[in-house]
């Protein structure tokens, strides 16, 4: 059992090490943060979607924006498209599960918003359809994927592609980079010194 622990941790570290060395990933995360902050400054919002573990990531990431990540600051406008069970089951029942995010983008999205889609395979059909619609609506598109990016790669303005085909290791790198993405948004939004000293909620 200890060998299993060591093997899995080494596998995780190897993936993270590859991410650490990949400047294209770093550049994409920085640019995603800049675009998202500029959208929020303009009164727009971030929408996030994904399935399974990536649905949990969507909710986790949005919680960091709406509540806080490491220090107190005003709430930032973000919504997870994975949380309303009545909407999800209605669309799944009345249309198709492939439409569960696309329909919400149609209802909630505005030009200048940001859609972040998370999929370890890069081929989740409901994320693909949401990205396609978002592009026609003038919404910025960002994808966090693995496995070379899949079908989502060509539908996204920015791609954060984890160099792995192992779902759990892709997810581990995603959540680390999602936290960093939130930190970068904060710095573009509130200034480069944000987080370097204690912050307080705006009065």
TrEMBL record:
Subcellular location: Cytoplasm
UniProt-listed Pfam families: SIS_2
KW Cytoplasm (keyword) present: yes
Domain (SIS): residue spans on this chain: 36-190
Binding site for Zn(2+): 60, 64, 171, 179
GO CC terms in record: cytoplasm
Pathway field: Carbohydrate biosynthesis; D-glycero-D-manno-heptose 7-phosphate biosynthesis; D-glycero-alpha-D-manno-heptose 7-phosphate and D-glycero-beta-D-manno-heptose 7-phosphate from sedoheptulose 7-phosphate: step 1/1
Catalytic activity: 2 D-sedoheptulose 7-phosphate = D-glycero-alpha-D-manno-heptose 7-phosphate + D-glycero-beta-D-manno-heptose 7-phosphate
Cofactor(s) annotated in UniProt: Zn(2+)
Residues that, per the record, bind substrate: 51-53, 64, 93-94, 119-121, 124, 171
GO terms for MF: carbohydrate derivative binding; D-sedoheptulose 7-phosphate isomerase activity; zinc ion binding
Major enzyme class: isomerase
EC number: 5.3.1.28
Key words of the record: Carbohydrate metabolism, Cytoplasm, Isomerase, Metal-binding, Zinc
Superkingdom classification of source: Bacteria
Cofactor binding: number and manner: Binds 1 zinc ion per subunit.
GO biological process, one term: carbohydrate metabolic process
Family per similarity comment: Belongs to the SIS family. GmhA subfamily.
Note: The reaction produces a racemic mixture of D-glycero-alpha-D-manno-heptose 7-phosphate and D-glycero-beta-D-manno-heptose 7-phosphate.
Function in brief: Catalyzes the isomerization of sedoheptulose 7-phosphate in D-glycero-D-manno-heptose 7-phosphate.
Name of the protein in question: Phosphoheptose isomerase
Organism field: Granulicella pectinivorans
């Amino acid at each position: 059992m200890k060998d299993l622990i060591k093997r899995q941790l080494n596998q995780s570290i190897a993936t993270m090490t590859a991410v650490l060395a990949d400047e294209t990933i770093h550049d994409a995360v920085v640019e995603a943060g800049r675009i998202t902050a500029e959208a929020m400054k303009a009164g727009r919002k971030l929408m996030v979607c994904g399935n399974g573990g990536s649905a949990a990531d969507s909710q986790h990431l949005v919680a960091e924006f709406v509540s806080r990540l490491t220090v107190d600051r005003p709430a930032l406008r973000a919504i997870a498209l994975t949380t309303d069970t009545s909407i999800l089951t209605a669309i799944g029942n009345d249309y198709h599960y492939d439409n569960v995010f696309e329909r919400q983008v149609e209802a909630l999205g505005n030009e200048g918003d940001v859609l972040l889609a998370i999929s370890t395979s890069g081929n989740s059909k409901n994320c693909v359809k949401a990205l396609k619609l978002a592009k026609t609506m003038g919404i910025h598109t960002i994808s966090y994927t693995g496995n070379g990016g899949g079908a989502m790669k060509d539908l996204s303005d920015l791609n954060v592609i984890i160099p792995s085909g192992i779902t759990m290791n892709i997810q581990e790198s995603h959540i680390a980079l999602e936290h960093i993405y939130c930190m970068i948004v904060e710095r573009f939004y509130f200034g480069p010194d944000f987080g370097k000293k204690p912050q307080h909620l705006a009065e």
